[in-house]
Amino acid sequence: MTDTRLRVLTLNCWGLKYVSKHRTARIAAIADVLAGSDYDLVVLQEVWVYGDYNRLRAAVSTRLPYSKFFYSGALGAGLAILSRFPIIGATIHPYSLNGSPIEVIQGDWFVGKAAASILVAHPILGQVQVFNTHLFAPGGDSGPLHLQAHRLVNAWEFAKLARQAAEVGRYVIAAGDFNSSPASLPMSVIQEHASLTDAWVVSHPNAPPLPNALPTPLDAVNIYGITADSPLNSFSAGKRLEPLARKFQGKRLDYIFFRQPSSPPASDKTPILKCVNTKVAFTDAVPGTDFSYSDHFGLEATFEISLPEGGDVTNPDNTYIPASAEPRSPSFVLTSVPNPTPTPPRALSPDSITEILQSLTACYRFSLYRARSQLTVFVVCILLLLVILIGSAWLPSSWITPVVFFLTIFLAWLATTFLYVGFVYGRWEVNALTNIIEELELYRNSLLERQN
Length: 452
Hints:
By secondary structure, the chain is of the alpha+beta class. It has 10 helices and 12 strands. It has helices spanning 23-35, 50-59, 108-111, 145-167, 185-193, 199-203, 217-222, 243-248, 350-391, 400-451, and strands at residues 5-15, 41-47, 66-69, 80-83, 87-94, 114-122, 126-134, 171-177, 197-198, 254-259, 272-281, 298-306. Belongs to the neutral sphingomyelinase family.
């Protein structure tokens, strides 16, 4: 165990109660692997059962004594983080758009997709903000624009949070299931606006281009970082895949990003966080079974911490900690150094913002149309209830009374539901889209002014 090395794992555990296959056995197996691992930070998604979280936490409590389970929405965000370092703060930011409450099967609205984070006190880096997220799922990278808009809003809000963390002098590690391919617009938003670096890309700089023929499933995992819909995964083997997934023998949806503080106060003494290795993890079957640990593979990254010009990074006399954190020992003292000129952050291109706005505008129009349609259903239900109420005085026989009774209950439920989704949720979604569209338009205009 060394503080100059940092090992991070992200894994979507597929832990939905009553729905996920072999959930109990898989969670137990994941806990066993984590108990024998040397990870410093474990970032988990789809841990929706608190008992599963307790089991995982207990298994790693000796090595990873600090942990946080995040609550959001009606069913919980499913996000959890385990840490070797003390947690000095934690927060969760539910995304503005998460699908619709009427889309029960998809379930994104009910679980409250969010960006969760913990603030840890690292003995060398100081404050490190660790983000965990699971972006909106439906729509894919080529689905309808109004569905892509929800994930784009997720990506924009996530990028702002990561950028803000770096701007106050914190190192940032961001991981999770982003439900987006590497070349998609949501990933461009996250990497460009937040200046985040993809750990897999950094550690695989010489990855060969995709061959004309299909890569083998093993090459797809080891060379291209495929974590979902792999033929090697028991839960996706034989699954009908979309064209992009067929081309790559799966999809790369799980990522680990990182970055330095936005404006380090002393470039010659501020530690550098460098990714030296990444690897797709949890690719084997659970021992003694024929099923995988999850419907996703995990992703692990190894970072090294060093000084720009070498030297002993663990020596407090040679190291500046950019944001205060509790020291490992009383002798660990912060060094005061004057601030240099801040380095300008990267920014989204106006063309990318325009593309985002097109998707959001399509979603805005669809939301208005859907709200009107749902309110129409509400009005029709009310009219039918009035007809039943008036006509009940002339019911031909008693046997029809129970039928009318249950029909009345159904229409009342339908009217209430569509009133809520058409008026309450519909107005809320339209207002959220309006705010984000105006924010992006202002941001694009400011970029164009700077360019001119």
